[in-house]
Amino acid sequence: MAEELNGLVIPQHVALILDGNGRWAKKRGLPRTAGHKKGCEAVENIVEVAARMGIRYLTVYGFSTENWKRPEEEVSTLMQLFRFYAKRLQKIAMANNVCVRMIGERSRFAPDLQKAIEGLETSTKDNTGLTFVIAVNYGGRDEITRAVRRMTQDAKNGIIEPSDITEETVASYLDTAGIPDPDLMIRTSGELRLSNYLLWQLAYAEFYVTDCLWPDFDREELENAIRAFNRRDRRFGGIKTNG
After folding, report:
1. Closest Cα to residue 44, out of 212, 208, 218?
2. Would residue 218 show up in a list of annotated catalytic residues for this protein?
3. Least CB-packed of 12, 28, 78, 181 within 10 Å?
C-alpha cells in the first residue's frame, strides 16, 4: 500500500498515544500484561514502518507519571518489559539507522533501567535516520513545571533575564528541546483526550483518533492517519498539504 502515499505530504513529526492494550487483552480473555507485550511488538513494527516512510520524528507515550498508580503487579511487569525491549530496540534502531531519545523524569526508575536507557541513547546517538522519542515517566504538566524551575533558577543566577524570555526560550527548557513540534498526533482506542501528553508541543498539531486498539495498530492504520492529515486545510504555520 506504500504506493498509495505517492504525492502525499509525510508529516515530519508524528506523536502517538498508545491506548487500548488492556482492552485488547480483555477481549481475548488474556491478562492485561499480555496486552502490554503485544503493544510493545506493535511499537517495534511501527518504528520500522515510520523509518521507511520517511517520517523524521516519532514520539510515543510509553509510561506516564500517572501510570505509577496502576496495580503494583502491572507496573512491575511494565518495568520488566522495558528492560527486555530496550535490548531489542537497540538492534532494531541500529538496523534501521534510528536515533533513540527518552524524555521524562527517569530518576524514579531502578538504576539498571536508567543505565539501559542511557546505553540505548548513547549507542544510537550518531544514527541519522528517524529519531524515535519515548516518553517514560512523562507528564506534560510535570515537564513544564520542571522547565519553569530551571528557568527561574537561571534567572536568579543571572543566566537569563526574565524580560528576554520568549516562546523559544521556554521550548529550550523542555524535555523536547531541539525536536520540532509534532505535525500529527494519533490516539488509538477512540479516546478523545490528551492525557497530559505534550501539552506545549501539540499546540498546532492535527489530531487523528482511531477506534483501533494499539496492539492492532499497523502500517495500514498509519497510512490512514497520513491520508487524513493530508485532507486537512492547515492554515497556521504548519505543513501545506494537498487537500
Report:
1. 218
2. no
3. 28
